[in-house]
Amino acid sequence: ILNVEQSPQSLHVQEGDSTNFTCSFPSSNFYALHWYRWETAKSPEALFVMTLNGDEKKKGRISATLNTKEGYSYLYIKGSQPEDSATYLCASRGGVMDSSYKLIFGSGTRLLVRP
Amino acid sequence: EAGVVQSPRYKIIEKKQPVAFWCNPISGHNTLYWYRQNLGQGPELLIRYENEEAVDDSQLPKDRFSAERLKGVDSTLKIQPAELGDSAVYLCASSYMGTDLYNEQFFGPGTRLTVL
Fold it and tell me: pLDDT at position A42, please?
């Protein structure tokens, strides 16, 4: 994988459903994986920074896992609420010294939670 | 603490006109980034500043785009002249390049540019 890819592109669920998205990234020279939530007309908000293989992070009803060997991360939302409606972006950072600051973004998963 | 501020939030112009976007980063953040997000894609880095110095502008289309960060605080991104393909969301982000290993980037709300 040369780019950061996210799936699905969009997702419509009912309130109360649990859902998950996938982020695939280059596993070579991996440094960190970032998840952001971007609500319409607002700033992208950082959810998680993940660095270690097997890492799991949780924030309320949202959690994420990381597999650096195979190059993927999952984001889970338990019991989706309408306020979870947003675009969820992941971004990978490579480990080469002069580019480790650089975030390479996926195209995002747009989540719509119906009441 | 105030977040990253951008203005304007929306801009509609006709092609060949100039346009400028302004960004005020989080106080104390020495690194500033400009990203462009085209429809259906993720944000892509245009330029990165460390203090006043543009340390990575390899993705900035220099024939029509220019940027400056006077005094290492606020920044302005300019397009002259704008083309139809420049329609996008322009995001500004800032971070503190210091002891934070991950240099977490904080984003502004973006400027949505429409070129007619």
Answer: 94
Tell how strand A109-114 and strand A10-14 pair up: parallel
CA distance A63 to A92: 17
Q: Give me the pLDDT at residue A31, please.
A: 85
For A19-39, what is each residue's pLDDT tens digit?
999 999 988 878 899 999 999
Closest by Cβ to B104, choosing from A43, A46, A89:
A46
CA angle, A46 then A48 then A51, to 5°: 130
Q: Pick the residue from chain A with its C-alpha nearest to B90.
A: A43
Tokens for A5, please give them.
């890819």
List the 45-74 stretch of A: residues with Cβ below 8 A of B.
46, 49, 51
Residues in chain B with CB shorter than 8 Å from the CB of A93 are 102
